[in-house]
């Protein structure tokens, strides 16, 4: 589900939340990093009084403080109140009586996205709240989506924020969909920043493979083998695409080789059509990939292969070599190198010293 704005899951709420309104048009939004609830004193707190009536004055002072905060919020004109910290049952009922929506314990990331989208400023105190710190959006709604309730801030004029809500039968499906969407969004983002594109679907890899094979025929020696194997490695991309789409990878690869070899420059953009399980002109069918992505992938793969080839020596543990040849006895005197295994090897070793 695509939301034109910001959306996040409904937070924990106290009694009285059901009486609050769940939809506003052009509401004023107040964001807080403040606790709005009565809480117990810290451990081992001690208050000494000389008159029992003084205890009631202390309790009344606590109530007056919380009510003062709530009155200031209500007078600010805010219709939606979000807080990073808890909003207790007293504040929840207070806001419900005045047709104000509230949500406490909002995640820091969700609060930050709401701040950017609505233009509100996070407040750490309710003293001196001015209209310029309040945000707004075209429409606010708490809506049931599947088995969860979400807070939706739509038509945020300050930014072009959007939220994608992913649902699935299992968490692994949701994670896989999120990964695929993230990859697709990042590709589009890079394509907008870098306007140079090439054909996708393994087309550019097949064209590079064809070019390298032709170039390898012009040279001799070990370099020819390296270039040929590099060209073969590039064909793993279209082969993997064909396998993941359910097509015959061998057939698809042979067709691509034929197209790239016979069609010349006009056939250089032929790649894998994962939807129809065939080959197509990817450039003409708008299957593109940014040049910067391909350059980064080829560079990283080449550097990784070169790093592995540079490994020409292995490091051995001398202690393991000694244990292997029986020069060192075990912890309880059972030497590994002696036939009877009674620790004689260690005693003989000391005797030679």
Q: Would you mind describing this structure in some detail?
A:
With about 350 residues, the protein is of the alpha+beta class. The chain has three domains: about 1-40 and about 60-165, GroEL (3-Layer(bba) Sandwich); about 165-195; about 200-310, Orthogonal Bundle (GROEL, domain 1). The chain has helices spanning about 50-75, 90-95, 110-120, 170-195, 205-215, 220-235, 235-245, 250-260, 290-310, 320-325, 345-350, and strands at about 1-5, 5-10, 25, 30, 80-85, 100-105, 120-125, 135, 140-145, 150-155, 165, 195-200, 270-275, 280, 290. Strand 13 and strand 14 form a beta hairpin. Helix 7 (about 235-245) packs across helix 8. Mean pLDDT is about 85; it is low at about 335-340 and about 340-353.
What are the key terms here?
alpha+beta, GROEL, domain 1, 5-stranded mixed β-sheet, 4-stranded antiparallel β-sheet, disordered C terminus
